[in-house]
């Protein structure tokens, strides 16, 4: 994640990047490197600049200052937040996944159909291929978009809040899926609000609040000083089975009051 | 039966029917993209904007298609450009650009008069005065649009469904948007004299909305919407002759009847049923 964290191929490097939609910068002086073997979680409160960081990585916005260096010929797959999707749009799962192949006739070729079915099978949703996208559960909708991204054979998969709105089982499945994809050679970068359910399970984290507060292993990022600076509130962190567990300060306060 | 076939003995009516059927199909096709992008109002707005071009080209004696076409395309691109600025929504952009153009058109026609199609024909449509050139121009525009949609099908679909992800995935979204604006402007331009400024928006929206109620598949929606638009154009034009009512009105009213019939029989049920039905995922293969 940083220049000394790994030896695998460097895919994207942000150096001193600053960006804002108006005069006020959303992100300032950001340094971040994504390598081919990385599985990175970007954590931070709402409005901290997580999605903007994704947009910079994806190249849909250009930095006001600093440089972004991409590996030549880098292919990036992007999975958007489910909340931004028009679920009444008239497409089936197959039609949605086929969008990844941006050239060609309206209908899928035999090879494309086989490729789509193989990807859907890999993600456990092949039996939903002809369903309308609204008929899927949240976890299935996420898998559909992952399938669409994977059809491009991306070196880097970027996902915006992939576990948002998922139940515990779906979230667990999603984390396993991401770990599997990463083990198969796809670099993954996700944003998440969920410190205990998601972030603590990822090998690398970046805490963001208009700048990079800290980056590294969960043990290094999920600690009281970093969390307080990132979320603007003091937080307690316990260790459970070797993993950090964040105590929600408001829940903890309420519990103490209730006990008293 | 003889009464129904009677108008087909007149060349002007045959040309009118061809134009109305082609126009209905063409607007039905483009209308799918327009309604799914939440830009239903643009058809209404652009037809008014093109009216400004119609007036200007009439006054400076430039060919109607050339003058109004350039004007319409410029208006569409202006709306697109204004919309891309984050602070102004698409509805506001359409409202500003197109009403200003329409107002200018009315002012020009009031001061200088018209040398081309009449004011009423431009507003409400007319089967009288459809020339062979009009038929060929509309046929050309329809063929161009069909080929453009066929070749750019996936890019148009992706850019309509999710422009941000399409952009990241290598679709040139700005170019695709410009293409859509181009065919939309051309379609409105070519159909304006038959359907009229005030009603052309309905021919874009109604077939697409009816088609959406009939299917959950994009390719099927395109086919349904094109077919419904063409049939409404054909029936509406015949009704126009027999009832002696402006053609734009009867075409739109035919579409409205189709909308009510489909809404009554299937409307709302399909989507709500789809929303309720969820299928569990199978285990992930690791």
Task: Describe the structure in your own words.
By secondary structure, chain A is α/β, with parallel strands linked by helices. Chain A is built from eight helices and eleven strands. Chain A has helices spanning 50-58, 93-98, 110-122, 138-150, 168-183, 218-221, 224-231, 249-259, and strands spanning 10-19, 27-35, 39-43, 65-70, 76-79, 156-159, 187-192, 204-208, 212-216, 236-240, 243-247. In chain A, a hairpin with a 3-residue loop joins strand 8 and strand 9 (212-216). Chain B is mainly alpha-helical and 286 residues long. Chain B has one domain (2-268): ABC transporter involved in vitamin B12 uptake, BtuC (Orthogonal Bundle). Chain B is built from 14 helices and no strands. Chain B has helices at residues 2-5, 11-36, 40-59, 64-84, 90-112, 119-124, 132-151, 153-161, 163-168, 173-195, 200-214, 218-243, 247-265, 269-276. Chain B is globular. The N and C termini of chain B lie far apart (67 Å). The interface between A and B is large, with 50 and 39 residues.
Task: Provide tags for this entry.
heterodimer, A: 260 residues, alpha/beta, Rossmann fold, 8 helices, 11 strands, 31% helix, globular, B: 286 residues, mainly alpha, ABC transporter involved in vitamin B12 uptake, BtuC, 14 helices, 79% helix
What is the count of DSSP helices of chain A, taking H or I runs of 4+ residues?
8
Domain count of chain A, please report it.
2
Element-by-element helix/strand order of chain A: EEEHEEHHHEHEEEHHEEH
The CATH topology of the largest domain in chain A turns out to be Rossmann fold
Low-confidence stretches of chain B: 271-281
Record the SSE blueprint.
The complex is a heterodimer of chains A (260) and B (286).
Chain A lengths: L9 E10 L7 E9 L3 E5 L6 H9 L6 E6 L5 E4 L13 H6 L11 H13 L15 H13 L5 E4 L8 H16 L3 E6 L11 E5 L3 E5 L1 H4 L2 H8 L4 E5 L2 E5 L1 H11 L1
Parallel strand pairs in A: 3-7, 3-8, 5-6, 6-7
Antiparallel strand pairs in A: 1-2, 1-4, 8-9, 10-11
Chain B lengths: L1 H4 L5 H26 L3 H20 L4 H21 L5 H23 L6 H6 L7 H20 L1 H9 L1 H6 L4 H23 L4 H15 L3 H26 L3 H19 L3 H8 L10
